[in-house]
């Protein structure tokens, strides 16, 4: 929480901003010190404003707001370092949203592990009138995640991540497999 910080010096003391005639008034000098105590945290915040919007430098209690600002739903289990990493990568993820690479990157960043995303290649148009559709006629996305411990993955959260970054009209299947089992399949 930001507020009065005892002992924080003001970057622009009010007493020094007064006309010369008032700078000699002892009572007024002591009176405006109260303003310095209240304004010092504001000046310090404004002087460091760029740090508040930099995920690597933002105070931990500011990360939630920053995550909302870039459209990331924060998982309470994430450490501050993990939150910083995900928030920093949000712009790049949003640029690739809806693509196979974008889905894979979002899942990898959120869950970890090795991620493979495939689709059927189905589409609703053809280059030639009456021509065959490429792949299967129905679009479908398969997201396969290989992790060391499949039981440690929050499946509901993983489903939400995939649903949030894939095209809305394309159904998907999420497979979460342990690394030891992945070698067998």
UniProtKB/TrEMBL annotation:
The UniProt entry, under InterPro entries, shows: Tail_protein_I, Unchr_phage_tail-like
Question: Pfam families recorded for this chain?
Answer: Tail_P2_I (PF09684)
Give the protein's recorded name.
Phage tail protein I
Question: Which species is this UniProt entry from?
Answer: Georgenia faecalis
């Amino acid at each position: 929480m930001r507020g009065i910080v005892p002992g924080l010096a003001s970057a622009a003391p009010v007493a020094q901003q007064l006309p010369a005639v008032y700078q000699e008034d002892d009572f007024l000098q002591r009176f405006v010190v109260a303003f310095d105590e209240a304004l010092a945290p504001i000046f310090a915040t404004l002087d460091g404003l760029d740090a508040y919007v930099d995920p690597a430098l933002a105070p931990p209690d500011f990360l939630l707001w920053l995550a909302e600002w870039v459209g990331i739903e924060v998982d309470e289990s994430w450490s501050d370092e993990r939150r910083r990493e995900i928030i920093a990568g949000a712009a790049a993820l949003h640029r690739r949203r809806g693509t196979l690479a974008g889905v894979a990157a979002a899942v990898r960043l959120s869950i970890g592990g090795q991620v493979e995303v495939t689709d059927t290649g189905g589409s609703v148009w053809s280059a030639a009138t009456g021509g065959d559709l490429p792949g299967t006629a129905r679009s479908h996305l398969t997201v396969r995640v290989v992790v060391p411990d499949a039981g440690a993955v929050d499946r509901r959260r993983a489903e939400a991540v995939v649903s949030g970054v894939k095209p809305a009209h394309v159904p998907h299947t999420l497979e979460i497999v342990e690394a030891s089992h992945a070698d067998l399949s």
